[in-house]
Structure prediction request, 142 residues.
Amino acid sequence: MARKAMISGQLDDMITALEALGDYRVLRRLRPPEPISEAPAGTRRALLADVETTGLDPDINEIIQLAMVPFFYTADDEIVGVGKPFNALRQPASPIPAEVTQITGIDDAMVAGRSIDPAEVAAFVGNNPNDRAQRLVRPQIP
Prediction:
């Protein structure tokens, strides 16, 4: 353990030296915290949602991916925890345009036979009719 701390300290010194040159920026591995399932006392729950579609026109384009991550925050807007994420793919009625695949990385093979279950979305989002996220997400899931 002492050796690991020594190496870590040496790495930190090397990173500091590289970044001081102004030509380098060293990225560190993101180690996400373990997801929590219950809101800590005194916090509120919010959702970060990412929706991928077959285009930009909501009248003709379809959702092909819905991803959501709940997070918990205090009255001072400090994020204190992240929950287990939701991720679902959906096969659209028409093939995914090449430009959409280029942007999203999602292709027809990935979504083949897949659907987004409205009941799973409802269970994940929660059951609060006053919640803005629920009003936005639920009507869009076929």
Summary: The mean pLDDT is 86. The longest strand covers residues 63-73.
